[in-house]
């Protein structure tokens, strides 16, 4: 395997596609996308615990721990921010009012099934807002390494791990490619120029539809 | 209709063994630390109230708040969406040892179940969990070509809530994102007990600023210098 994108580069690539609108970034890796939002893009961020239009973390020492995001990180407010209770927050989610929600993944299937909450028995299960977020936002994006730490495909014909949602993912931004899910198929939109289609297919667990494939080009970050 | 209680001990005195207790807050934001610790202190002195079911988004962090309740051994079961935190040992150790129960509920479903409980709606349908392990055994129905899972209301014997301002009649405001589950929980418990930073006379809160109307509140205690759970954790608090 040749070069692959870092998490920051995957986040940068996803950020380029942010629409003007309302976006929820999942805790952890997806949160990084906010750093790379293109200039002039009018994005308002939603967080499950009841804030719309929050900004960056405050400087160390200036945190107000009553003002946090779903990842329990301290945040700041932009002019025009709003607070609301949890039922209103998830009305925004389930009611279809968000334009994009971005999540991490253990596995994504070609029909859009997502597994990202449980690695199976033996651990403490935790789901948070993921099972709600995957039903409601107009687009569900996943950011992930293309393969597991052991080098096995994370993009599969069928998920093996417990599902978060059925047929919900619309686009996957990986360390090697950008893949849209269209009619229950992985449609390759972009791939790293340094990797061949055959090489990419070899680390992908379901067929890639590759009709019109662009180069995945990101800056050094 | 003066709902102000002179002491925190008096406010929580009739919470009994086996009750279901909703506790406001999301992580440390909105956690009613003084109410929780009054309950822990009572349990340590008298052995009651034990065998509680605690409903909160999380399952405690470090050794204070809900984690202190779990550590004290007074919690039989957690109902929550995310029993993880920067230091989840109080819950995790007991859970893996089979000493505490867990009902895992997606966060939006948890909020809506509490809202339904407070609003007199016994069940509702949501798309969340359809096709997953968490919908097993629940009725499924199709509406406009999409599948939905039936969820039931969630009610409690007691809700413990942290507010910013309270007037003597129980109207409440909240501070920043500390609002989260609290306005819902206040509606869904038989007895809602509030710790407020400041208690004001009726009229001291603009009617347009009231978030929780007083009809949902039973008891109020003023805790002027309330602790913030996350701030305590970062100071290294262990009691």
Walk me through the structure.
The complex is a heterodimer of chains A (221) and B (239). Chain A is an alpha/beta fold and 221 residues long. Chain A has helices at 7-16, 86-94, 130-133, 197-202, and strands spanning 21-25, 43-47, 51-55, 76-83, 100-103, 107-109, 114-115, 139-144, 155-156, 171-174, 177-182, 185-191, 208-209, 214-215. Chain A has one domain: 3-Layer(aba) Sandwich (Glutaconate Coenzyme A-transferase), CATH 3.40.1080.10. Helix content of chain A is 13%, strand content 28%. With 239 residues, chain B is an alpha/beta fold. Chain B has a single domain, classed as 3-Layer(aba) Sandwich (Glutaconate Coenzyme A-transferase), CATH 3.40.1080.10. In chain B, 25% of the residues lie in helices and 26% in strands. Chain B is built from seven helices and ten strands. Chain B has helices at 8-11, 33-46, 66-72, 89-96, 107-119, 182-188, 229-234; strands at residues 20-23, 52-55, 75-80, 101-104, 123-126, 140-143, 146-152, 156-167, 189-200, 219-222. In chain B, strands 4-3-2-1-8-9-10 form a seven-stranded parallel sheet, with helices on both faces. In chain B, helix 3 crosses helix 4 and helix 5 (107-119) packs across helix 6. The longest helix of chain B is centred in the first third of the chain and has 14 residues, at 33-46. Chains A and B meet through helix 2 and helix 3 of A and helix 4, helix 5, helix 6 and helix 7 of B.
Search tags:
heterodimer, A: 221 residues, alpha/beta, Glutaconate Coenzyme A-transferase, eleven-stranded mixed β-sheet, 4 helices, 14 strands, 13% helix, B: 239 residues, seven-stranded parallel β-sheet, three-stranded antiparallel β-sheet, 7 helices
Strand order in the largest sheet of chain B? 4-3-2-1-8-9-10
Strand content of chain B: 25-35%
- Radius of gyration of chain B from the CA trace? 18 Å
Class from helix and strand fractions of chain A? alpha/beta
Tell me the span between the first and last alpha carbons of chain B.
36 Å
Name the largest protein-protein interface in this structure: A-B, 38 and 53 residues
Overall CATH class of chain A: Alpha Beta
Mean pLDDT of chain B: 97
> How much helical structure, as a percent, in the residues of chain B?
10-25%
Assign the CATH topology of chain A: Glutaconate Coenzyme A-transferase
Please state the CA-atom Rg of chain A, rounded to the nearest Å.
17 Å
Q: How many DSSP-defined strands of chain B?
A: 10
The protein's oligomeric status is heterodimer
Low-confidence blocks of residues of chain A: none
By DSSP, the count of extended strands of chain A is 14
- The CATH superfamily of chain A is Glutaconate Coenzyme A-transferase
Counted up, domains of chain B total 1
Estimate percent helicity of chain A: 10-25%
Order of helices and strands of chain B: HEHEHEHEHEEEEHEEH
Number of helices of chain B: 7
Report the β-strand fraction of chain A as a percent range.
25-35%
């Amino acid at each position: 395997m040749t070069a692959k994108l870092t998490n920051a580069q995957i986040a940068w690539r996803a950020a380029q596609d942010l629409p003007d609108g309302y976006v929820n970034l999942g805790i952890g890796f997806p949160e990084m996308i906010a750093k790379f939002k293109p200039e002039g893009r009018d994005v308002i961020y939603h967080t499950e615990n009841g804030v719309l239009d929050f900004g960056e973390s405050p400087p160390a020492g200036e945190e107000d721990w009553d003002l946090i995001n779903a990842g329990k990180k301290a945040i700041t407010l932009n002019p025009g921010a709003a607070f609301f209770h949890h039922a209103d927050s998830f009305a925004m989610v389930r009611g279809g009012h968000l334009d994009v929600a971005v999540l991490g993944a253990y596995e994504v299937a070609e029909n859009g099934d997502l597994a990202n909450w449980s690695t199976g028995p033996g651990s403490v299960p935790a789901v948070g807002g993921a099972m709600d977020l995957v039903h409601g936002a107009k687009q569900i994006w996943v950011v992930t390494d293309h393969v597991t730490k052991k080098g096995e495909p994370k993009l599969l014909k069928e998920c093996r791990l417990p599902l978060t949602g059925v047929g919900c993912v619309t686009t996957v931004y990986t360390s090697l490619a950008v893949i849209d899910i269209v009619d229950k198929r992985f449609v390759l939109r972009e791939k790293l120029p340094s990797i061949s289609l055959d090489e990419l297919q070899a680390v992908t667990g379901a067929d890639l539809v590759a009709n019109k494939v662009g180069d995945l080009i990101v800056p050094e970050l | 209709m003066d709902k102000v209680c002179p002491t925190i001990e008096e406010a929580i005195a009739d919470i009994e063994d086996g009750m279901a207790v909703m506790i406001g807050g999301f992580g440390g934001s909105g956690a009613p630390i003084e109410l929780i610790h009054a309950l822990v202190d009572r349990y340590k002195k008298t052995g009651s109230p034990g065998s509680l079911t605690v409903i909160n988004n999380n399952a405690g962090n470090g050794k204070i708040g809900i984690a202190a309740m779990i550590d004290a051994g007074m919690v039989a079961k957690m109902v929550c969406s995310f029993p993880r935190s920067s230091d989840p040992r109080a819950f995790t150790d007991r859970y893996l040892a089979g000493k505490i129960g867990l009902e895992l509920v997606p966060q939006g479903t948890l909020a809506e179940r509490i809202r339904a409980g407070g609003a007199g709606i016994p069940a509702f349908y949501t798309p969340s969990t359809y096709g997953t392990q968490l919908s097993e055994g629940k009725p499924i129905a199709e509406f406009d070509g999409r599948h939905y899972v039936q969820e039931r209301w969630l009610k409690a014997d007691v809700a413990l809530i942290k507010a910013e301002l309270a007037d003597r009649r129980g109207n409440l405001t909240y501070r920043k994102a500390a609002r989260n589950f609290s306005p819902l929980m206040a509606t869904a418990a038989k007895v809602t007990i509030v710790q407020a930073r400041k208690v004001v006379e009726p009229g001291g809160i603009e009617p347009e600023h009231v978030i929780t109307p007083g009809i949902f509140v039973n008891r109020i205690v003023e805790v002027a210098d309330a602790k913030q759970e996350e701030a305590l954790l970062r100071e290294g608090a262990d009691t």
